[in-house]
Design brief:
Layout: H1 2-17, H2 26-38, H3 49-52, H4 61-64, E1 69-71, E2 77-81, E3 88-90, E4 103-105, E5 110-113, E6 127-129, E7 134-137, E8 153-155, E9 160-163, E10 177-179, E11 184-187, E12 199-201, E13 206-209, H5 213-216, E14 224-226, E15 231-236, E16 248-250, E17 255-259, E18 273-275, E19 282-284, E20 297-299, E21 304-307, E22 324-326, E23 331-335, H6 338-342, E24 346-348, E25 353-355, H7 371-378
Bound molecules: 2-acetamido-2-deoxy-beta-D-glucopyranose (5 copies).
Pfam families: LRR_1, LRR_8
Protein name: Leucine-rich repeat-containing N-terminal plant-type domain-containing protein
Organism: Platanthera guangdongensis
């Protein structure tokens, strides 16, 4: 038994000590050559990774290429991680011959064209990273979806992908990181998303519609949601801040008109940061936010919020106190509690209808709105003045 184990250990050692010793599988070597051949030669700078891939020698990729690939002990290409040297060209379909590939990272280049359908054969693929290239077409051809069951990371941000986010994406149940930011995606959110998502980034697209509870309530692992810079509208509903694992929510630069915050009620314990800036949100600053114990960063800049800064944000804040508070560009009134200004906070209370905010403090710039604007906002809308001092 012991001898057996020793033998096994030696085998393991051999595998890990000489990972590059094996001659590259011939199909893999041919596919790598085809990949290099598909890259426009003038886009390959002299000292880049691809320049060093010399297939004209009897050189073997797994044993002699010093960068850009890594191989398994049996001579299969396991990862391609190219340098961002500015390579241009279209991905050849034959890349699917690299059947053991688990990582394909081409980020920060000028690769263009559509993602080849043949990528669907890469059933061992765990990480697909095409960030900052010039890919076009649909993010993922529907033929993709059956085989990529190992895919954990799909990062396609900063390209020119267009079309809808297909609901069939949710069949890729291993995906935990989905980043489709800064493309030209349109339409509403799909009716479902991959169930094990941890990070969802759809920032900077042309997405429309509402943030639908039925899409998110099954995402029990979701920690980060970034939908900023789209055209979402309607109400930000109370369930959102209470997703079980949620830490960061960014809905800035959309057209949300209403924000409802439910009492934390034992959920949302890990919520650290919320940004709903640059929307059309009316109503008051939600006092219930003070009940979220880890919430330290709040941005509501440039909305249509009225009323006072809730007293709950100070003394009654559950757990950690606010450390970043951007409330600028609303119609908040009343006195800014001195504790907020003196307490080493980052943020802004400027461009509101507040009083007691000394311009000498960086927190108070830009200056408050002119008195006539504040008066017109707080009179004639049926709101009682209740003896509140406008102070402007
Ligand atoms: C890709 O694999 C197929 C099947 O093994 C083979 O017929 C074809 O020649 C390969 N292509 C290249 C460029 O190696
Ligand atoms: C590859 O290596 C051969 C032999 O050293 C050399 O003649 C050739 O110029 C190299 N090709 C490239 C593209 O560097
Ligand atoms: C999935 O991969 C298998 C081989 O690994 C292939 O025969 C099949 O066509 C692939 N499915 C799709 C939808 O590409
Ligand atoms: C929310 O999504 C579900 C499922 O896609 C759909 O049936 C429902 O109509 C959507 N609700 C709204 C208000 O769009
Ligand atoms: C929203 O847009 C404003 C103005 O263009 C910009 O300053 C801010 O950084 C944006 N916020 C986010 C989260 O994208």
């Amino acid at each position: 038994m012991i001898r057996h184990r020793l033998h096994f250990a030696v085998l393991l050692l051999l595998r890990f000590c000489s990972p590059a010793a094996a001659i590259t599988d011939a199909t893999d070597a041919a596919a790598l050559a085809a990949l290099k051949a598909a890259v426009i030669p003038s886009s390959i700078p002299p000292f880049s990774c691809l320049a060093s891939w010399n297939f004209s020698l009897a050189a073997d990729p797994c044993t002699t290429f010093l960068c850009g690939i890594s191989c398994s002990a049996d001579g299969r290409v396991a990862a391609i991680v190219l340098d961002g040297a500015g390579y241009s060209g279209e991905l050849p379909a034959v890349i699917s011959n690299l059947s053991q590939l688990h990582t394909l990272d081409l980020s920060n280049n000028f690769f263009r064209g559509t993602i080849p359908h043949s990528l669907a054969f890469l059933s061992n693929l765990r990480s697909l990273v095409f960030t900052s290239n010039r890919f076009t077409g649909p993010i993922i051809p529907s033929s993709f979806l059956t085989n990529l069951s190992s895919l954990q990371t799909l990062e396609l941000s900063s390209n020119s992908f267009s079309g809808l986010i297909p609901a069939s994406l949710s069949s890729l149940s291993a995906i935990s990181i989905l980043d489709l930011s800064h493309n030209r995606l349109t339409g509403p959110l799909p009716s479902s998303l991959p169930p094990n998502l941890i990070t969802l980034a759809l920032r900077g697209n042309l997405l429309t519609g509402i943030v639908n509870r039925s899409v998110f309530e099954s995402l029990v692992s979701l920690e980060v949601i970034d939908l900023s810079g789209n055209r979402f509208g309607g109400e930000i509903e109370g369930w959102l801040l209470r997703l079980p694992k949620i830490q960061q929510i960014n809905l800035a630069n959309n057209s949300f008109a209403k924000w409802e915050v439910w009492p934390a009620g034992g959920r949302g314990d890990e919520l650290v940061a919320v940004d709903v800036g640059f929307n059309l949100i009316q109503g008051q600053l939600p006092a219930n936010l003070a009940g979220y114990p880890s919430l330290v960063a709040l941005t509501v800049s440039h909305n249509r919020l009225r009323g006072v800064i809730p007293w709950q944000y100070l003394g009654q804040k559950n757990g950690a106190s606010f450390r970043r508070l951007f409330l600028d560009g609303n119609f908040l009134y009343g006195r800014v509690p001195p504790e907020l200004i003196e307490g080493g906070m980052t943020g802004s209370f400027g461009d509101n209808c507040l009083e007691g905010c000394p311009l000498a403090s960086a927190l108070c710039s830009p200056r408050q709105k002119p008195g006539w604007i504040c008066k017109s906002v707080y009179s004639g809308d049926g709101r009682r003045r209740q003896g509140d001092t406008m102070g402007v």
